Amino acid sequence: MDVKKRLVRQTLGLSVSHFVVRVLGFVLRILLSRELGAASMGLVELAHSAQQLLITPVVTGLPAAVSRMSAKAEGQRGRQSRVLRCALALSLGVSVPLAICAYLLRSPIAAWLGDMRTLPALLFCLPCIPVLAVSCALNGYFYGTGRPAPPAFGELTEQIVRLLLCLRLCALLTSMPLALRAAIPAAGALAGELAGLLLMLPLCLRPLLRTRGDGSRRAILRELLSLSLPLTGMKLVSSLTRTVNATIIPARLVVSGLPQSEALSLLGMMNGMLMPVLMLPSFITCSLSMVCAPEMTRRQAQGQPLRRLCLRALGVALGVGLCAMAGVCLFAPFIAETVYRQAELLPLLRRCCALIPVFALSQVVGGLLNGLGLQSAVLRITLLCGVTGVVLNYLLVAQPALRLWGALIALAATQLLALLLSARTLLRAVRPQGGA
Question: How far apart are alpha carbons 379 and 342 in whole angstroms?
Answer without folding.
Answer: 37
